[in-house]
Each structure stands twice: as C-alpha cells, then as structure tokens.
Amino acid sequence: MNRWAVVLAGGVGSRFWPVSTPERPKQLLPLATDAALLSDALHRSLALVPPERTLILTNSTLIDAIAALAPDIPRENLIAEPRPAGTAAALTWAAHEVARRGGRDAVMLSVHADWAVKDAEGFRAALSRAADAAEKHGALITVGVVPSRPDPGFGYIQPGDVVEGDLRRVARFVEKPDRARAEVMMRDGFFWNSGIFVWRAGDFLDEVAAHTPEVAPHLAAHADDLQGFFGAVQNAISVDVGVLERSSRMMVLPGDFGWDDIGTWAALRRVRTLDADGNALSGLVHSLASTGNVVHTEHSAVVLYGVSNLVVVVKDGLVLVTTTEKADDLKTLVQSLPASIRDR
Prior knowledge:
With about 350 residues, this protein is of the alpha/beta class. It folds into two domains: about 5-260, Spore Coat Polysaccharide Biosynthesis Protein SpsA, Chain A (Alpha-Beta Complex); about 265-340, no CATH class. It is built from twelve helices and 17 strands. It has helices spanning about 35-45, 65-70, 85-100, 120-135, 180-185, 200-210, 215-220, 225-230, 240, 270, 330-335, 340, and strands at about 5-10, 55-60, 80, 105-110, 115, 140-145, 155-165, 165-175, 190-200, 250-255, 260, 280, 285-290, 295, 300-305, 310-315, 320-325. The strands form four sheets. The protein has a five-stranded mixed barrel with strand order 6-9-7-8-10. Strands 12-14-16-17 form a four-stranded mixed β-sheet, with no helix packed on it. The termini are far apart.
C-alpha cells in the first residue's frame, strides 16, 4: 500500500516551562511515558508505515536532535521549516513532497508528536479505516475522537449526513467552546477535533489550490524551493481554517482509543499512571496526605505533605509551583518573567 506518515513535530511547548526549551521542546520530553513524545508517536505509526515513508516536519534547530532520537528515519525525511508558517503551509509542503516521491494517489496519514494514546492498536485501526475511506471516496478524512469529557480546551466536529457505516460528512467545525457549550455538544454527538487527518496527497493539494490563497500561489512559485515557499507565506493559517473549513470534501470517522492532547502540565494527570491518591509523579517524589498533584523533577527530591491540585516542576535549581487550574495559562506567567529566570 502506498501510504505515508507525516508527523508534525514543531513548536516549543511553552506551557511546559521550565522543562521545555527551544533546544529541548516538549516533543522531545518523556511526558506521557518514559519515552519522548515523538518516540511514542513514531512507535505508533511505524507499524503502519515504514521509516522510509515517514516524514517529520520540525523546527530547523531540532533536526540534529530528532535525527539522534529517530535514527531509522532517513535524514532527508526530516523537513526543517525555516520559520513558522502555520499548519496549512506545513501540510501543503508535506503533501507536495509525498506526491513528488510517491505520486498524487499516495495516502498521507498526518499526526502530531505531542499526543498520548492509550490504545495504540485501536489508533492504528482507525488510521487504516480512514486511509481506505480516503482512497474509496477521494475525500479528506479526519478521525473525530469520541469525547470522554466536555473539554473546553479542544475544538469540536459536528457530524453530518451518513456516507456509509459510521463514515459521515462533516457538517461544521467548532472552535474551542466554553464548558457549558461543550457539555451540550458532547450530549449531541459531536467529536473532538483531534488533528488526525488522512487523505491522498493529490486530493489535498487540489483543495489547497481551490480554497487557500494564503498558501497555494507560493507553492506554485516555489515548488522546488522549501526556503522560498516558507519565506513567501506571510499569513500563517491553520489547516483547519485555511483548508478544512472551506472544503466540501471533508468526512469524519469516529475514533475511541484513549486519545489526549498533552497541552499542559495538568494534562499529565489524565495520561500518566497515578498513585493511590491520584497524583502524577515523575522523579524522586515522596507524597503523604496529598491528592491530585502533578510533580516532575529530574534531579532533585520533592516532598509533598497535605496539599492538593498543585503542579510542582523542578529543573536545575529552578522550582515552579502553580495549581492544576492555572497551569492552562502558563504562557502568561512565562511572558511576565525576566529573562534571567525565563531563559536560565
């Protein structure tokens, strides 16, 4: 089968400060398991797609680190984005590269490097079903995750008309709602917008050409020049806004395999093994009469006594203490810090 995997592994992950840094961002950190998030992502996908057909899109500064982390992936498959230009541009270049190497009918499985998945086999089965649907219907397929809670931190998908079985057309995408609206959408059968996308490279490129003037002319002008393409895209736009919301070829398949987005320190309570008191602990930690905490320490010991719902992160003598609630807004804290603390 002519299938390719595309793993988006860019960004810094500032919500995981102080451990996540530009040189060692969250996708290279062991947050969900004892392996780096990117290693987990590759392990899940390589059962479907071999290394020589796996592309990793990342920051130009991370190529060497990712090459060391994933030595089986050919170096030419590590694509260095010279500047952030949005996921529409990144996936357009990836589809262009897949079509160049494998043909326009090659199926592209697009995933992110910063997810946790409890049921890897179920995840792979959903991707395989989506690939079959993309080939059969010439559609752009997204795997909508069956929500386990009314989470306002995710976008949602409203399924529309039935195509066949549980394959539905996408009625609409909904940006991150408030909690009350998320509860209603969960009750009404909406899916989480996971960011799992599957399509034939040529079909996606056709939709970009038809609907995404922010990107399409620059690909035509710089088809053999990655630097020129990314440099020409001035208006960074997400693939959801730039392509998917504008396309009439979107379809959704449901997926229920324990998916979660590792977006904040607080998210680790949902994806890591918890102790008897519901704490997510990593490193040398002793906890007594303490519940619902997240602790990450790499070299120092941490002792908790009689506290709840805290996030405690220790790195090289710097200690972050916040609550699981405020961890969602860590960017505000990081932006307020003097460089002497923020960048140490």
